[in-house]
Records
---
Amino acid sequence: MTNVYPTAFGMLRTMIILGIETSCDETAAGIVSIDDSLVCTLHANAVLTSMDLHTAYGGVVPEIAAREHVRSIHPVIEQALADASMTWEDIDAIAVTYGAGLGGSLLVGVLTARTLAITYEKPLYGVNHVEGHVYANFLTQTSLPGYVLPSAAPVFPMLALIVSGGHSQLVLFRDHFEYTLLGQTHDDAIGEAFDKVAKMTGLPYPGGPSIAKKALEGNDHAFTLPKAKMPGKYDFSFSGPKTAVLRQAQAMVGKDFTFASKDLPSALNEAQKADIAAVFQRVAIETVVDKTLLAYEEFQPASVVIGGGVSASPELRRQLAERLPIAPQYTDPKLATDNGAMIATLGAFKAQLKADPADPYSLEIQPNLSM
Ligand code: KG4
Ligand code: ZN
C-alpha cells in the first residue's frame, strides 16, 4: 500500500531541509532531501554530544548540556553543510525541535533556528522531538558511507513504539500528522530506568548499552521481577521494577532497604551485577514488547516501527522479531539516538505536504510537549 500525494497536494518538487536538534545532550544538525514521491535521502548527520561530561553524574545535567549546545550549535551546522557539500542557497527550509526536552537546551536550538530562518529567509518548521524519532524510519536512501537504512518507508496504518531516555510511548499513525497516542509511561521512561539501574550497579552512563553488555554475562532468570500492572491497556511503568531491582540488590548484599543505593556498586560482585542487568533488561523490554503485541493485535497495522535511543537495543529487536507477526522496521543505530536528520525528515514531510510554517519571530519552546 502506498500513499500517492502529488494529486492531492499539487505538483511537488524535491526539497532540501536542514534539521536542528538540541533537546537533551546531543547538539545535532542533519540535512535531508525529499523528492516528489516522498522518498527521503540523508545527506548529512552531524552530532556533537556532551555525554562524557555527564557520565560522572550518572545522568544529564541540564545546565552543562545547555552550555555545551551554545558552544557546539554553529560548528555542528557548518559540519552538516560541509558533509553534504551544500551551502545555505541549497537549503529550502529549516526544521527545529521545539519540544519536548530540557528548557535551556531547547532554547539554544530554537533561537538559533529562528535567527537563521530570518537571516537566510527560509521557512521554519517546529518539530516534536518524539514524532521526529518515528520519522528517522522514513530515511531510505543516503550518499553517506556506513549507514544501513530500511529499503522502503513504512506504510500506514503504522504502529510506532518510541523508547528513549525521556519517552516510552505507543502511537498509532493513520497517516502523516494523523495519530493517536495509545499509551505511555506513567513515571520513568525505559531509557531513564536503564540509566538509573546502571548507576545503581556502577555501570557507566548511558545505561542502555552498558546494561546490554553486562547482561551478556548474567542469567536473565536469576530472580523474579514483577511487571507493573497499569490501569491503561497500553500504559507502562518502569519506576516499580526499578525499585524492585534496588530491593533485590540490597538483599543480595545482605542489607535491608535502608542501605544506600550509592553504596551498592562497591558491595555487589560482578556476577550479581550481571544478573541484575540481565533480569532488568529482559523484564523492561518484555514490558514494551507485550504492549506492542497487544496493540498490533487490536489495530492490525500495516507496519510497526521503533524509534528512540533504546530502539538500538539488540534485546528489543530480538524480542520484537520473535513475537510480532510482521517484521518490525528500525533504522541505523546512528539515527536511533538523538540526531538532526530525523528532525529534518519530519520537517521535510511538513514542507512537502504543505503544513503551515512557524513564525520565526515567535516560535516558543515547549519543554512538556506531548504527542
Ligand atoms: O533517544 P535518545 O538518544 O535521547 C532521548 O530522547 O532521551 O535516548 C537515550 C536513551 C538512554 O537512556 C540510553 O540508555 C538509551 O537511549 N540507549 C540504549 C542504547 N543506546 C542508547 N538503550 C539500549 N540499548 C542501546 N544500544
Ligand atoms: Zn530522543
---
Amino acid sequence: MAKKKGRLDFIKMKEAHEQVAWVTAYDFPTAQFAEAAGMDMILVGDSLGMCVLGYQGTIPVTMADCISHCQSVRRGAPNTFCVGDMPFGSYQITNAEAVANAARFLKEADMDAIKLEGGLRTAGALKAIADAGILAMGHIGLTPQSSGPLGGFKAQGLDPDSARFVIEDALAVQSAGAYALLVEAVPPELCSFIAKKLTIPVYSIGAGGPCDGQLLISSDMIGMFQSFTPKFVKVYAHVGEEITNAFKEYVNDVHTGAFPTDEYCYHIRKGMEEEYSQMLKEYE
Ligand code: KIV
C-alpha cells in the first residue's frame, strides 16, 4: 500500500513538476475506489449538495452534512490525504467561527486539511485558520458558493481585467498562509501563470494545465451526476447508465417472475423438509 502523502510531498511534487491527481468523494465506497486507484488526494467537496443530496447548488449544505460525509470518506480512504470543504456560512461570519468550524473537520472527521472559497474577500478567515495551525487551501476563479454574485456557473478571467482579479486573489491566498490553491474554470494560460508565480501548489479544476495537478468531481467523471456536465469534464465511465440498465433489468425480472430463481434462495435443512411442511400446515 502506498504511503499517505502530506504537505511536504505535495511541495516536492510541485518542485519536480509531478502532477497531483485528485477527485472528490462523498461516501465510503467511492473513497475506497479512489484510494485503490492510487489517487494522490481526495476532496470531500460541498458539491455533495448537488451530487448526493439533490440540491440545485451548494448553498444549503451544512457543517453537519460535510462532517458526516468526511467521516465516511475517511473510513473508506484511511491512507489518502483528504481535504474537507467548508460549506457556505461556516467561515464568513467571524474569523473565530471559521477557525472553530475548520477545527471540526480535523477533530471530528480526521481530515488533513480544509478548503474555502474566495481570495481577497475571505483572506482574513483563511489567515485565521492557517494561523491556528490548520492546513488551509484557497479556491478562486469560479467559486460555486458565490455563483449568484458571479452571475452563474461561469468561467472567470477570460479578459485582462477579470484575469487581474484572479491573480490578485491568488496572491492574497498565498499571503494569507494557505498551503495550496485550487483554481476553477479560468483559461489554462492564467492558471499556469499562477502556478509558476506562487510557491505553494496550484491545482486546476477546469483550468487546464500545466499547473501542479488536476481535480475532477467524481460524480461528473464517472457519469453518475445526470443534471449537467461542465465542458471541462472528461467522462471516464457511464455509471449512471449502467445502474439504470441494471435497475430496469431487475424490474423486468421481478415483474415477470424471472427473479428470484432457486440459486438465490436459502434452503430448508436437509432431511427436515417433511417436518417443515407439517409445521407450516399447522398455521394454514
Ligand atoms: O465542492 C467541490 O467539489 C468543489 C469543486 C467544485 C472544486 O469545491
